């Protein structure tokens, strides 16, 4: 009898058969969470990273694309975009936000269509945030580029990432170099897949 093992969400699941056009996403945090959960890289289980200190609540599903890693190739794209203060990727899987009109729990796998993202620089590290829509979502599913999303929705996401690490009287710890569309988002995904292959093989 063959034992039934659970695949590691980061290393045991592909980025998606049709990536970068449609990607698999492992959801770590949902908009109702007041705790920041993060995948434990060793075990693959969700663990508590920290309670959210302030009223900053993630306005979309948030997680990562499996078998991605942000290092040299992702950093090069940030440099090409004009970032002069970046020296590396953040050495984590590629972050992704998924817009959906449905209530979804954390710790699940879903398919999403990348429509753009934010070139975020955090302490000299390229920390891209891909923005995507849930496949077949009745409200967001038809969008194919971040330019089609209401500006208020984009601003909400930007505000979260620019403020969620800061005390009210602290200077900003990170900045957004640029907002990019679907074409560049796919380049970032491919770069992070290359970084994963270079780091972990396969």
From TrEMBL:
Its EC number is 3.6.1.1. Keywords: Hydrolase, Magnesium, Metal-binding. Its cofactor is Mg(2+). InterPro entries: Pyrophosphatase, Pyrophosphatase_sf. The keyword Metal-binding applies. It is an enzyme of class 3 (hydrolase). One of its GO terms (molecular function) is inorganic diphosphate phosphatase activity. Coiled coil: none annotated. This is inorganic diphosphatase.
